[in-house]
Hints:
The protein is an alpha+beta fold. The protein contains 3 helices and 5 strands, in the order ααβββββα. The chain has helices at residues 9-21, 25-41, 131-147, and strands spanning 57-65, 69-80, 87-93, 98-109, 112-123. The radius of gyration is 16 Å and the shape is globular. The termini are close together.
Amino acid sequence: xxxxxxxxxxxxxxxxxxxxxxxxxxxxxxxxxxxxxxxxxxxxxxxxxxxxxxxxxxxxxxxxxxxxxxxxxxxxxxxxxxxxxxxxxxxxxxxxxxxxxxxxxxxxxxxxxxxxxxxxxxxxxxxxxxxxxxxxxxxxxxxxxxxxxxxxxxxxxx
Length: 158
């Protein structure tokens, strides 16, 4: 789903990480955990998304890297943000000091649920937290899709 500038930031981020994963085991671990999280999203009903006052959405993800090494870790995978219906996907690998986030919103098109991922980013300890900015920009995209759905139809037919 394109951001406010029309650029598909999520696809670009994943492409860049995939390029880095070709050269680095650590980057390959990151990519595989994100891919596992996105695959899980394909089967999560909207009703299972966490509420602001509810229990956190925790999930154990297991990945295989380089066909020889397996990793398993529990994540607080989904978090609702202050502007609903905006959420963030969270993949924290504390051992690498890496905190991945991707803002998204659920959208039904012709009875089919889509999770529209808009802005991926990394939280870096000691630096300003971009979460609120990404949340607000994602909400703006949500509004555009809501009021101009036909402009975005091709993203839901791919």
